[in-house]
Amino acid sequence: MSTEGVFSLSPPFQLTTYRHIVEKRNKNTQKMSYFCGHMNIMLQHMHFFFIIFAIFVRTAKAAGQENPLVDLSKREYLVELAGYGEEKLSTVLVSGAVLAYACLDEENKIYPLPVSGALVSVTCQTSRNTKSSSAQAQAMTDEYGDFIIDLPSHLHAIPDLDKACLVSVLRVPEDSACPRFLVRKPKAIWLSSAGNGIRTYTAGEIRIQDSREGLSKAGTGKALE
C-alpha cells in the first residue's frame, strides 16, 4: 500500500505545536497559582478576624455583660434622643426678669424697678408619680433684674417641660425696693424659642410689690401673678 496520499506533519510543525501547548498550559498554571494564593491570604485574614471576634465576645460574656458593641450603640442612640449624657448635646435656658412695683404716695402712681441680686429658682417635677421627685436650679438677677438659668442636662428630657417647671423668687437684697415680700404663687414658664440645639423658656416679668406709707417706711409686700 502506497503512503503518498497519507497526510503527515513535518517535524518542524510538530515542534511548534508542542511548544504552543506547553506555553498555554504554563500560563493557565500561573493564573491558577495566582488565584489560589489570593484565596489563601483572604481565608487566613478571615480566620484571624473570626478568632479575635470570638475572644472578644467570650470575654464579655465571662464578665457577665451583654455584647459591648450592642450596648454602645444603644447608649449612643439614647443619648442623642434625649439630648444629654457625657457630651452635652442640647441647651435649655429659662429666662425672665424680677421687677419691684413701689407705690409712691406723692406721685400716686406705680412704676417698676429692676431688682438686682435677687435669688431666683426653677423647680421641675422629674416624675409624675410623686410630687416629691423634683430638681432645682438657681441663678441671681443682674443689674437690670434679668436672669438666665441653664438647666442641668438630666432635666432636658422631661416631657412637657413648660408644665413641669415653675419659677420662684427665693430672696432679694435688703437694700432693694421690696426688701420684704410674700410670694403667693410660683410663675409658670413657656417656650419662647427653639433651634440649633437650644431651647429657651421664659417666665416673663415676675412682679413683686411692697406697700409703703412713704419712701422711708416699708410694709409687707406680695408677689403679683
TrEMBL record:
Entries under Pfam families matching the protein: Pollen_Ole_e_1 (PF01190)
Transmembrane stretches, start-end: 34-57
Keywords in alphabetical order: Membrane, Transmembrane, Transmembrane helix
Superkingdom of the organism of origin: Eukaryota
Name the record gives this protein: Uncharacterized protein
Source organism per UniProt: Dillenia turbinata
